Amino acid sequence: MWGAGSSAASCRPTASARSPPSASRRGSPRSRRGATDGAGAASATTRRIADEAGVNEVTLFRLFGSKDALLDAAVEAAASGAHPPPLPAEPREPERELSAWCAGELARLRGAGAVLRRCLAAPDLAGRHARTAERAVDESAEVLRAYVDRLAARTPLADAPERGAAVAMLVSTLATDALGRDGLPAVFAEPPAAAPRGYVRAFLRALGWPAAR
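RE: above sequence
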């Protein structure tokens, strides 16, 4: 029963509660970002997410259906919104090309750092979310591995297992730098701007690249 002065019409969602004309199942970037910013997914209530996105809870549920679906969208947007920059199809200046690529990768991973860290470490974002975050790093390894194969076809390098280990070390270093530099100041003592070239020179020496010896 409705109280005095109430009606069925007054219980319907207001205009502000309805999805805006341009809203889609993907939701707004602010709502996806709000799902995992700040205190983390475990404490991300739909009310807090709605407040940060500038909408109300009814709108969020109309767009996403559930809090889990909203978190899925946030993780997917952070992990898959940008892909690793390409490396040249024909390697010509490995140190320069790889240094530029490493700088781009560090920027890409840092941009998604808050979400990726939670995906890989927080128990509330285990399972499929962790696998989604891992893709962001796996793609880096795929791009780098293909470039090294092209380089090896032009110049004698270390054997395939050693090349694979060198790729793993560089990608792991980039991911750790991007996601954990602030917490490991003694490990990452070199200034961020100088780090890519240092990583690449060590990488090329590990590959057996003649010019790096």
